């Protein structure tokens, strides 16, 4: 027989002692089972914590993946808009005979600019050669996009992000009432009048000295391609076409193919009158 362990229990009040005999084999077996159970519990707890951590990591990675997918979609949309802008720019270049600077030759002088200059300056060449700075300023002011294109308030300003270009806002947003006039910021020629996915109905005008202006989210375009417009002349009505949550004008100014801050040029509503010059 195997060895046994005797356990004697003696009551305090003089009762009959009780003796128990336990087999050492079963005691060892029970200890092994208890140890195995304890290891299993510890191992289960560790495995559960690892699985929980992996689940949290999975949720975090899923959320990050979803965010990256949304950013990728946004980048694709921006790329499509850039591609569309390049197509518009190519159309503008074709319509201007291969260059953006309207008015370098006498044949392409804008009618509105010539009328304004003739009204104010009887001898343009003599005045320019004579160094009449006031005359030069009047001519440049008429050709530069300094007229506030519509009435309202600035709801978003110009912002250019060179690190994340898709976050750039290459113009200003002017919030106003639906249907109010949108005016040409300077005399020029309409080189695009149509629809784009993001900006809805929009108009692009080419001006002298390498300037272009862009007017987006229009309700109605009042001018067509090749139309010549005067400074301050209505060219569209303010609206919310395209991707827009409220009525506003998205207005951009480009100089020699580079976007510039319109607030550095526009002079305010008082400069809108076409007959000021």
Description:
The protein is an alpha+beta fold. It folds into two domains: 72 residues; 163 residues, Glucose Permease (Domain IIA) (Distorted Sandwich). Strands 3, 4, 5, 6, 7, 8, 9, 10, 11 and 12 form a ten-stranded antiparallel sheet that branches. Helix 2 runs antiparallel to helix 4. The C terminus is likely disordered.
Question: Shape, please?
Answer: rod-shaped
Structural class of the helix and strand makeup?
alpha+beta
Low-confidence stretches: 95-131, 269-277
The CATH H-level superfamily of the largest domain is Glucose Permease (Domain IIA)
The profile of the biggest β sheet is: 10 strands, antiparallel
CATH fold category name of the largest domain: Glucose Permease (Domain IIA)
Strand and helix layout:
Blueprint: E1 4-9, E2 18-23, H1 24-95, H2 111-120, H3 124-129, H4 133-143, E3 153-156, E4 172-175, E5 181-183, E6 188-196, E7 200-206, E8 211-221, E9 228-229, E10 234-238, E11 248-255, E12 258-260
Antiparallel strand pairs: 1-2, 3-4, 4-11, 5-10, 6-7, 6-9, 7-8, 8-10, 8-11, 11-12
Helix pairs in contact: 2-4
């Amino acid at each position: 027989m195997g060895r046994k362990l005797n356990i004697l229990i003696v009551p305090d009040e003089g009762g009959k002692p009780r003796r128990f005999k336990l087999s050492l084999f079963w005691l060892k077996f029970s200890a092994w089972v208890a140890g195995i159970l304890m290891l299993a519990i510890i191992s289960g707890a560790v495995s559960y914590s690892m699985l929980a951590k992996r689940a949290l990591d999975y949720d975090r990675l899923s959320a990050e993946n979803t965010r990256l997918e949304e950013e990728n979609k946004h980048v694709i949309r921006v790329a499509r808009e850039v591609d569309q802008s390049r197509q518009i720019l190519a159309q503008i270049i074709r319509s201007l005979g291969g260059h953006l600077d309207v008015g370098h030759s006498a044949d392409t002088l804008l009618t509105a600019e010539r009328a304004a200059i003739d009204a104010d300056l009887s001898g343009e060449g003599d005045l320019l050669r004579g160094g009449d700075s006031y005359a030069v300023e009047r001519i440049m002011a008429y050709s530069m996009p300094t007229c506030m294109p519509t009435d309202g308030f600035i709801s978003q300003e110009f912002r250019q992000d060179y690190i994340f270009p898709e976050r750039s806002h290459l113009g200003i947003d002017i919030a106003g009432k639906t249907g109010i006039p949108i005016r040409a910021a300077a005399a020029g020629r309409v080189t695009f009048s149509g629809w784009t996915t993001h900006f809805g109905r929009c108009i692009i005008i080419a001006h002298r000295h390498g300037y272009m202006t862009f007017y987006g989210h229009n309700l109605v375009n009042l001018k067509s391609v090749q139309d010549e417009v005067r400074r301050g002349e209505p060219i569209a009505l303010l609206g919310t076409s395209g991707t827009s949550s409220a009525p506003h004008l998205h207005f951009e100014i480009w100089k020699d193919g580079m976007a510039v801050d319109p607030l550095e040029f526009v002079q305010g509503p008082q400069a809108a009158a076409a007959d000021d010059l």
